Amino acid sequence: MPLNYNDQVNLLKDILNNHQTDCCGSVAECEQLERLIKSLMVNNEIHDNVKNVLQEIYTYSQDGVNTGNLDDHITTNQEQLANWVNDIDQFS
Asked: Which domain does 24 fall in, by range?
């Protein structure tokens, strides 16, 4: 059963929150972020301002997949992770 829009947004926020609070994550989570974002970007329900945030998160996740030290990458982006969740809450 596919995830609906709200489920996708909640999963996206959960992964970002986990990265932010735990200061660690996995390549699989970054890949899941990419899949969620691709799906959300084609959704007509999504606010244009969220699309900009999603593009930033997509870049973050791609960088995470390709980095030599994912935990350092996550730690470097701590403030941005919290901002993204707040932005998504504002516009979704």
From this structure: 5-91
